[in-house]
Amino acid sequence: MVSGNLPLRHYRSEQTMLAAGDASVVRSRTTFEPVVPGTGWLFERIIAVVFGRMGRALARTLG
Description:
63 residues; two-stranded antiparallel sheet; 37% helix
């Protein structure tokens, strides 16, 4: 979940939960176009950190 006034176009994010034995696997796929050329790598990193933290928090909660 990314909200606010980010310089991104065509932002799309999809999360899928799959059964994996007694656990679950969460897969995340995000696509976007940066408004400012050359900043795509920065937003890829930010989004990876945000979704990583969310995933770890979800794992702790569902533990």
